[in-house]
Design brief:
Shape: elongated
Order of helices and strands: EHHEEHH
Low-confidence stretches: none
Structural class: mainly alpha
Mean pLDDT: 90
Distance between the termini: 36 Å
Strand order of the largest sheet: 1-3-2
């Protein structure tokens, strides 16, 4: 695991604790994993490990399900949001490249 991973992204929480935090049953949590709405890591013993970001995602999923949103729709929205985020990153990198080219900034931060 990377040292600079934020505490929110570190996969350290067991499914039992996630169940307590979210109010979801372990079965529901595993179902959302099957539906590719959540992506826990596995310990060397095969136990699921979740992050605080996963807990927030599960709460969001549960709220949407209570509103009647189907898991398929939730997944499609997640994919759309992921694509938007990737597009934002690409645009940001392109802009940075254009600025660096314009002002002669090299990758190592030096100048020509």
């Amino acid at each position: 695991m990377e040292q600079d991973t934020s505490y929110k992204e570190r996969k350290v929480i067991t499914i039992g604790v996630v169940s307590e935090l979210t109010g979801l049953s372990e079965r529901q949590i595993r179902y959302y994993e099957e539906r590719k709405l959540i992506f826990p890591e596995r310990s060397h013993k095969g136990n699921r490990k979740y992050s605080f970001a996963d807990v927030e995602q599960l709460i969001d999923i549960a709220n949407k399900r209570e509103e009647g949103v189907q898991t398929y729709e939730i997944r499609q929205d997640m994919l759309k949001e992921k694509r938007k985020e990737e597009d934002r990153k690409i645009r940001k990198e392109m802009m940075r490249g254009q600025i660096n080219a314009r002002f002669g900034v090299q990758k190592d931060g030096g100048r020509n």
